[in-house]
């Protein structure tokens, strides 16, 4: 096996298999971490049904449970909380965030890796307050982890994360907003209050975020924009997509790096007025010659975007949707006059996974080497059906997945989900494993 799985659990009626933690080479990924027991329900010690208002508050109990589980899984995989290089958090309710931060600071002894926190519409457990993703280096990897900071790029003291971190030749930049030192959206990133068309808000915000937040962070870590391996972009106004893309594309004179763009409801970020948050993984300049651009014929949301990039055994894939040049792929379109003969969500997942297969194959890997699968869905009620397409690809070994309900519309009419994938590329002497053999 090229990746190892830890804590695999069957959910529901035994048709969904979750691998909360996987190890691939020097890296460990935790995905879809919620305060659940082996049955997939929120643990009774977290809920305290008879005394739900006991201290600490439920969200803090939830976060403590998650970090205790995370610590055990990381230890089993040969890592530790001290080796964490990235955290991503999704919350249905902003009131959970401060309590989560208290538990996180305690668990990580104040040394919090670059972090992205997004408010979303729903999680797979209706009574869950958070869904966490983590990435860590193994203890025996010899990877040096160094927290860095650009003079002009800080982080809110309440959350206490590092804005930027270098781990070996990988650079992790926390989710960035177009804010200034005050913590609010910078004046230069907004249209003046008395003006109607003195600039376009999303273009101003995107430009400021790139020039004043991303570029300084990358430079402080010895990297630059053309070395970005993957970006995740969250937009809280779906209609901003075309003008966001104009500014995003202008920042990359050659090709747009693999980017996943996710529409979320507003407000979605730590600063109420923000319309945009972006995090990136990049390579250090010393590793520029080792970056592989993965090319193959797949239709993406942005036509001139790279489908994927790989570095040192990790594969970073652009966000995938069941779309072609005209919109939703024909196989996934539901006829209004006869809607009962097709499962649109499952057909969309089948198309997405066929694209993913092409990308992984072009990189010298396969879908058995997925180390993280994030499903951003219009409606989580379709998750169970869509997941069954994964079973046809990778069997029941356990998928490192998380499913998040985001916006009621996903850019393309009829679209049900956006899939964000990270994978492992075996070394030349390590044969890629066929998903069919799992």
Describe this protein's structure.
There is one protein chain. The chain has seven helices and 23 strands. With 438 residues, it is of the alpha+beta class. It has a seven-stranded mixed beta sheet with strand order 8-22-21-23-18-17-16, covered by helices on one side. A six-stranded mixed beta sheet has the order 1-4-5-9-6-7, with helices on one face. Strand 19 and strand 20 (327-328) form a beta hairpin. Helix 6 packs parallel to helix 7. The longest helix has 20 residues, at 201-220. It is globular and about 55 Å long. The relative contact order is 0.13. Residues 429-438 have low confidence and may be disordered.
What is the topological layout?
Elements: E1 4-6, E2 9-11, E3 16-18, E4 21-24, E5 27-33, H1 44-47, H2 58-76, E6 84-91, H3 97-107, E7 115-119, E8 122-123, E9 131-137, E10 145-148, E11 164-167, E12 170-176, H4 201-220, E13 228-235, H5 241-250, E14 259-263, E15 276-283, E16 292-294, E17 308-311, E18 314-317, E19 323-324, E20 327-328, H6 344-362, E21 370-377, H7 383-394, E22 401-405, E23 417-424
Parallel strand pairs: 6-7, 13-14, 21-22
Antiparallel strand pairs: 1-4, 2-3, 4-5, 5-9, 6-9, 8-22, 10-11, 11-12, 12-15, 13-15, 16-17, 17-18, 18-23, 19-20, 21-23
Helix pairs in contact: 2-3, 4-5, 6-7
